[in-house]
Amino acid sequence: MSDSNHYKKKEIIWLPEFNEEKKTRRRTIDAIKPLFTNLPEIYDALYEISNGISYDQKAKYDAKCLAEKICSFSFICSLNIWHMILTKVNFVSKILQSIDMNMQVALDALTELKKFLIKIRTDANFEEIVNDAMKIAEKLNVEAEFETSRSRPLRRRKTPKSFDYEHEDHTINDLKTAFKINVFFYILDQALSSVDERFNLLNNQNDVFNFLFKLSDDQDQARLRSSCHHLQKKLSANDSLDINADDLYEEIVSCQSLFKKLNNDVVKILEFIYLNNLTAVCPNITIALRILLTMPVTVASAERSFSKLKLIKNYLRSTMSQERLTNLATISIEEAILDQIDIHEIIKDFTNRKARRVEII
């Protein structure tokens, strides 16, 4: 064996450790990708462990069971399906979790994801997945047939030949059709259902706030007034109103010329209002934009906040008030802002405010 071949055989492949508390879509694709890319090598490693003399019986048994699972043709097809879907889902998920995300961009991303899932839900695409799985199965010496139960003995994988040859025709059987319907189509239908649910929720919010993304455009006056009243209704609770629809309409019409150069960028518009001390001039626009920009597009921020709270509670291991816990979580989440603050100046200011001086006569 040449040195290069020996090096390739001994190349280290790192697989991420599963963590129930940190299970996310991003980590899921990170777990799928090395398995999808290096399945034959992982099988070889499991085979070596199951037959090694330097491992205990439990490790050898676990390795044997895992090796038997991954050399199933159904597993290989499932791996291909999940890799294809999660790669696209991971891309969209990263877009949705960006800091400057807004509802319009989120809706566009979800629309593209929905189109992708519908596009791949075809018999032709399933056949392509099966053909790709056959190539991997050939490297693992696995028969390209769908099975209901397995009793395949574990054996060393043969080294693939260096020349090409024709594959035998594989007849379509009932098990293959069952896999297509019960696995491939089912997974895609569930994914489409989840995307539709998220899309409908965001679309309902977008119907309410969409006109705020056109503050510098010439909008239809009747439609603009109707949108302002619709927003007032959504932001009201009992007799409490966050905004006044008629005042909001007048502010938008009056300030439209001021926002022309900002290209309907709601973040820049809100910054412009504060930098030019216009909050008293257009208070309803200010409130509406603040609500719009603080509405979560995804639950990523909530997940991070939860993680920070749990981290603080586990680290301190003591009871504390809710106010203190919330403040510590805020400090931990906004670490970048905290690094810019001079702690010594805060301490000095605190001592000056709290110092008790008693005059001695």
TrEMBL record:
Lineage, top-rank taxon, reads Eukaryota
Q: Name one GO molecular function term.
A: protein dimerization activity
Q: Name one Pfam family in it.
A: Dimer_Tnp_hAT
Sequence intervals crossing the membrane: none
The UniProt record lists the HAT C-terminal dimerisation domain at 274-336
Name of the protein described by the UniProt record: HAT C-terminal dimerisation domain-containing protein
Q: Which organism is it from?
A: Pieris macdunnoughi
